[in-house]
Amino acid sequence: MNDRERIIDLIKRGVISSAEGLTLLEDIAKQGGVTGRSGRTIVVDWHGDDATTMTTAARVRQHNEQAVLRAEETRTPNKGAAGTPSSSDERDEEQATVGKRPLRYLFRRSMRDVIDNVDWHDVARRLPGGQNRRGTKTFDFADCTASVLAFEVANGSVHYRTWDEPGVHITADVRVYGRNDGDPAQILADRSVIHADGDSLSFRVPDKRITVDLDVRLPRREYDHFDTQVLNGDVAFDEISGQDFYVKLANGNLRVRSLKASMFEVENVNGDISVRDLAAQDAVMSTVNGDLTVIGTVNALRFQTVNGVARADMNAPVESITGASVNGNVGVSLPRNAALTGHVQTQFGRLVFQAHDVPNPENARQVDLNRSGEKSGNLSLSTGAGDILIFDN
Q1: Which of 84, 165, 258, 305 lies at 20 to 30 Å from 241 by C-alpha?
Q2: What is the Cα–Cα distance from 116 to 79, expressed in whole angstroms?
Q3: What is this structure's pTM?
């Protein structure tokens, strides 16, 4: 690269101004016979002394280097000015040449200013850390005659079962989250709301920083009312007898094994419902994003799910069954001697009947049932993208 190309490159990169570059080009033109801005050609004796030519070229290079140094001194701020131009003209020139400079030049300059002006020091910060501590606590209610039970847990599970003792015994498996140096069992006692008298027993743990799994052992007798609400956890019933049962849970499963009730109602979100050996007069069950299975003897049953399979296996004739699913199959199984009446339909699925005196439809989406038998057996089944199946036990 000769001197002329070098000067043009310095102008393009913004190292020197256009005026300084023109001055240098004119100096070179005077020495080397380059055409100037006025269009006049300067004639130079190329056959002169070589030493004189080399000396002139050295002076031009020295002049170029001095011009570059002056440009750098003009554009490089001192440390006390913190990168601010000394005058408005220099600031305007600085802004005009920013777009012409390579990114690496701007990056190096910015890093140099930061390193020179920032007071560097070590910074130590403590980040919060989680703790998970476990504990167990028991609650004994000797000779408890309460017939109304209410349990509410924000995080955890509730498991009901019977035993042969006269009192109510509750075992709580506790997990405490967060920074707390106390005993988990004592923390549960402090953050729980417990009330017990001759008529009712309530146990509530509304604190979401505590996960508690309750094992509730009840005397073998018939209870008037069960009210169970669990936000993040499961609920289970084993060999329980009562009048009214109400269960509401989310993000958990319901499991029932051997339950007798007059009214059994369940509401679930994001979980399955599995009920086996149920003996109830009326039952209402619903879930979202989960499967539903009911096996037992129910006089009037109503069940539905949004995304899941719904199935009801009845061991005795029924008065009515209403079942629905948006995205899933709906199946009902009844004894051979049970009556089958009502209406069933599917939007995009099939109708599959394997029951006595019920013809299997061909390419039908809705059918009216009419089979005589015990009780009324009124069925109202519907689904969107699933099939409807009716079987004999």
Answers
A1: 305
A2: 7
A3: 0.67
